[in-house]
Amino acid sequence: MEDARRALERFWGYDSFRPLQEQSIRTILEGRDSLTVLPTGAGKSICFQVPALCRGHRGREASRERNLAVVVSPLISLMQDQVDALTEKGIPAALVNSLQNESEKRKVADRVRCGQLRLLYLAPERLLSPKTLGFLRQQKCVRYFAIDEAHCVSQWGHDFRPEYQELKTLKQLFPDASVHAFTATASQSVRSDIACQLGLANPCYLVGSFDRPNLTYRMPRAGQKMQQIMDVVQRHRGKSGIIYCLSRRDVDTTTQALRTLGINAKSYHAGMTGPQRKSHQDSFMQDRCDVMVATIAFGMGIDKPDIRFVIHNGMPKSVEHYQQESGRAGRDGLDSECVLLHSPRDFLVWSDVMHGEASQVARDSLQAMFELCNDVTCRHKAIVEYFGQDYGVMRCGACDVCLGELVLHEQSSAIAQSIVACVRDLKQKYGAGHVARVLSGKSDKRVLQFHHDRIKSFGALDEHGLMAIKVWIQQLISQKYLSRSGSYNTLATTAAGRRLLRGQGTPKLTATARNQQSVDGNQSFVPAISSLAAFEYFRSGDSIESVARKMSRAESTVAKYLTDYIRHNGISDPTPWVKPETAQRVLANKHLAGDGKLKPIFDHFNGEVSYDEIRITLACDR
């Protein structure tokens, strides 16, 4: 290990290893297969890069025939970034990919033949081609294989790629080379499956802690999204942050909205050209822009330690995705914030996307993510225990649950009693979906078939909606008022649930209304994204009619956008849009709208003044 420590200090400038790095490197130097799980930011790339510069096991120098480490990676950009970083340090590394011409590929092959390379990066498809495999076997040069992003091997993982499963042939084709799998996120079942799929021989399992104590997790219900996003951005004004969106369209509209609000933001998604993506990524990495708004196409291999916040503008489809993406914040160990804005609609959207195609594993992962968002237990504890580790702390002090920031429903006890009573009335024979349909008053085929439209609980919570009830059922399960059992996950009342029906207990159910304040109490007005899209038109002097045509919106809708523009910019003169005499008449009678309603003023003028004219004038009078 002395070689490893010297290499770490010489090439990376560190005088000691992070937790598990030394153990992982030792297994490679000993020639033993391994699986290393180190969460984002823990330095897993060093684990397979440093051994390439060291003597092998039993102190032997790596011979010319076996001096090469082959790194398997899924993305060209990720490989290129790592190779560039290594060559800048003076480490002989190269990659071969589909974007290179034949001359460039031959140069890499010549370096392999001459024993000049220590690290060769390849995509799984490139490595597994008969030509590449034949070349590497002929050279007898491979000392070990490092499989990066190894969760792609497992169908139980969150980013399964079929081509990765073919990597199991490496153990047969290269019996003298060890194989080492690396990933930032893998549950116990995924870890076991990775080892099985790759055919690892008696592997050493090294699993780091999944807890990131310097991250504060907040998972509020989505409401006025732009207001919620700006609250976070303003708390970290001038600092680096990432905002993840579920679609390219959301990326573009959110980026434009942020730029309109004066935030130095850039976008990143697969619909952009390669040069555009690289330019925007370079701007972010070099601190020329503060906020990157992106789909999940952005982030893999990003080594920026000072990202102070990560916002998810929508629920990811698995806890693994969330843990990896949120983990890009605070890699320097300093306090950082992770905010996930979610709604029941996110679950429905993902369910539609997965319909008929996704495995049961993917659906289970989505359900686990839904439960994490909507639970009322410590976020740190829930994430750590999802990955099979004990948390061991009562209150983390770094999540919205433990900080007491959750907005609870005023009628939590009454709603909880209705839900538990319904489970009891249904004889504890049905799952959460059926219970929710009964409580919401859905007269579907199954409810009618069993005459559940006739029980007392039918429609008891119809004003709240089906998804809200499902959320509350999950929260009652986590608080031990209900339990699930059997292959059909039927619901049953617990002893605590039965006591609740007698008026004993204090259940906590989250509010569905979006009348809550931001975490820091910021009450500054932030327009909606739809309004912000019109601001450039208003700034250019376009009329309401012109903007309505350009945006394909009704004039009444654009008039509401205009009132947001007026409020945001503090405009006090309505005359660019309302005749001076009309504005004076409205202001003379503004007392009629004391409760904020415009109809009394409209009625006072007997229709001579439009609602839009009233609305615009009063917006200028704030």
Automatic annotation (TrEMBL):
<dbReference type="InterPro" id="IPR004589">
    <property type="entry name" value="DNA_helicase_ATP-dep_RecQ"/>
</dbReference>
<dbReference type="Pfam" id="PF00271">
    <property type="entry name" value="Helicase_C"/>
</dbReference>
<dbReference type="GO" id="GO:0005524">
    <property type="term" value="F:ATP binding"/>
</dbReference>
<dbReference type="GO" id="GO:0030894">
    <property type="term" value="C:replisome"/>
</dbReference>
<keyword id="KW-0067">ATP-binding</keyword>
<dbReference type="InterPro" id="IPR001650">
    <property type="entry name" value="Helicase_C-like"/>
</dbReference>
<feature type="domain" description="Helicase C-terminal">
    <location>
        <begin position="225"/>
        <end position="377"/>
    </location>
</feature>
<keyword id="KW-0413">Isomerase</keyword>
<dbReference type="InterPro" id="IPR027417">
    <property type="entry name" value="P-loop_NTPase"/>
</dbReference>
<dbReference type="InterPro" id="IPR036388">
    <property type="entry name" value="WH-like_DNA-bd_sf"/>
</dbReference>
<dbReference type="GO" id="GO:0006260">
    <property type="term" value="P:DNA replication"/>
</dbReference>
<dbReference type="GO" id="GO:0009378">
    <property type="term" value="F:four-way junction helicase activity"/>
</dbReference>
<keyword id="KW-0378">Hydrolase</keyword>
<dbReference type="InterPro" id="IPR011545">
    <property type="entry name" value="DEAD/DEAH_box_helicase_dom"/>
</dbReference>
<comment type="similarity">
    <text>Belongs to the helicase family. RecQ subfamily.</text>
</comment>
<dbReference type="InterPro" id="IPR018982">
    <property type="entry name" value="RQC_domain"/>
</dbReference>
<dbReference type="InterPro" id="IPR014001">
    <property type="entry name" value="Helicase_ATP-bd"/>
</dbReference>
<dbReference type="GO" id="GO:0006310">
    <property type="term" value="P:DNA recombination"/>
</dbReference>
<dbReference type="GO" id="GO:0005737">
    <property type="term" value="C:cytoplasm"/>
</dbReference>
<protein>
    <recommendedName>
        <fullName>ATP-dependent DNA helicase RecQ</fullName>
        <ecNumber>5.6.2.4</ecNumber>
    </recommendedName>
</protein>
<dbReference type="GO" id="GO:0006281">
    <property type="term" value="P:DNA repair"/>
</dbReference>
<dbReference type="Pfam" id="PF00270">
    <property type="entry name" value="DEAD"/>
</dbReference>
<dbReference type="InterPro" id="IPR029491">
    <property type="entry name" value="Helicase_HTH"/>
</dbReference>
<dbReference type="InterPro" id="IPR036390">
    <property type="entry name" value="WH_DNA-bd_sf"/>
</dbReference>
<keyword id="KW-0479">Metal-binding</keyword>
<dbReference type="GO" id="GO:0043590">
    <property type="term" value="C:bacterial nucleoid"/>
</dbReference>
<dbReference type="GO" id="GO:0016787">
    <property type="term" value="F:hydrolase activity"/>
</dbReference>
<dbReference type="Pfam" id="PF14493">
    <property type="entry name" value="HTH_40"/>
</dbReference>
<feature type="domain" description="Helicase ATP-binding">
    <location>
        <begin position="25"/>
        <end position="204"/>
    </location>
</feature>
<dbReference type="Pfam" id="PF16124">
    <property type="entry name" value="RecQ_Zn_bind"/>
</dbReference>
<dbReference type="GO" id="GO:0003677">
    <property type="term" value="F:DNA binding"/>
</dbReference>
<dbReference type="InterPro" id="IPR032284">
    <property type="entry name" value="RecQ_Zn-bd"/>
</dbReference>
<dbReference type="GO" id="GO:0043138">
    <property type="term" value="F:3'-5' DNA helicase activity"/>
</dbReference>
<keyword id="KW-0347">Helicase</keyword>
<keyword id="KW-0547">Nucleotide-binding</keyword>
<dbReference type="Pfam" id="PF09382">
    <property type="entry name" value="RQC"/>
</dbReference>
<keyword id="KW-0238">DNA-binding</keyword>
<dbReference type="GO" id="GO:0046872">
    <property type="term" value="F:metal ion binding"/>
</dbReference>
